[in-house]
């Protein structure tokens, strides 16, 4: 358990809410750093999701993602390219956005040993592709969804997961 996770465990509700709001803001900012790809843009969101869960714990990571999704559903321009609304949550990227919830939760189980961190963060990152590709297939078909919604993202997934593990290792040393 990290110092951050331990500090959050007994946190009053107001402080927890403020931390979740901060996490949702980090996630919203990461959505704006994007490579325009179709039908799913490549963003830094998955890196943010991994770090929110791994550094804050499962509860705070998932709460941050849930708040982010609620903000976007209410019309705040927090999704990639400043988009918002229910239409985004019903569009081609909806499965990935919803996949952030279990990914953040699983990332919160990263533990303190680097092999476990690497394994758990890799699993969390790959987990978000399951609902993402499944939902995307309804728009573009299975073969194209797997290629455009998973295979093309694998190099970035490897880099972002390694970066998340490195950040986690550095933050847990102190």
UniProtKB/TrEMBL annotation:
Q: Which GO terms describe its cellular component?
A: plasma membrane
Primary location class: membrane
User: Cross-referenced InterPro entries, in alphabetical order?
Assistant: BioY
Q: Where is this gene product found? A: Cell membrane
What is the topology of this protein in the membrane according to its UniProt annotation?
A: Multi-pass membrane protein
Q: Keywords of this protein's UniProt record, alphabetized? A: Cell membrane, Membrane, Transmembrane, Transmembrane helix, Transport
From what superkingdom does this record's organism come? Bacteria
A molecular function annotated in GO for this UniProt entry is: biotin transmembrane transporter activity
TM annotation in the entry: 94-111, 118-140, 146-168
Q: Which family does it belong to?
A: Belongs to the BioY family.
Name of the featured protein: Biotin transporter
Q: Which organism is it from?
A: Neoroseomonas marina
